[in-house]
Write a structure and sequence with these properties.
- By secondary structure, this protein is mainly β.
- Helices cover about 0% and strands about 25% of the residues.
- It has no helices and four strands.
- It has strands at about 15-20, 30, 45-50, 60.
- The chain has a four-stranded antiparallel β-sheet with strand order 2-1-3-4, with no helix packed on it.
- The relative contact order is 0.20.
């Protein structure tokens, strides 16, 4: 839920990847620019990259291979 309170200067769209950064005061802000877009030296601390799902939840980019858009995560180990 804390991610929905992060500052955002654009309209978020389902299926897009957003990059979450934190400021020195602890406030959070979304950006369309990844750390790589900043040449590996973003002006703020990178907290992670996430995709916005249809249910308005956030999926870490590192989990995208195991969780297609809009579908619940399946834990294969529990099958």
């Amino acid at each position: 839920a804390y991610m929905h309170r992060a500052a955002c200067r654009f309209q978020k769209r389902v299926g897009q990847i957003y990059h979450l950064y934190s400021r020195a005061d602890g406030s959070l802000e979304f950006s369309l620019l990844s750390p790589a877009d900043w040449g590996g030296k973003p002006p703020l601390r990178h907290e992670g990259s996430f995709r916005l799902e249809a249910d308005m939840s956030w999926i870490p980019v590192r989990e995208l291979e195991t969780r297609p858009l809009g579908l619940p995560r399946i834990d294969l180990a529990s099958l």
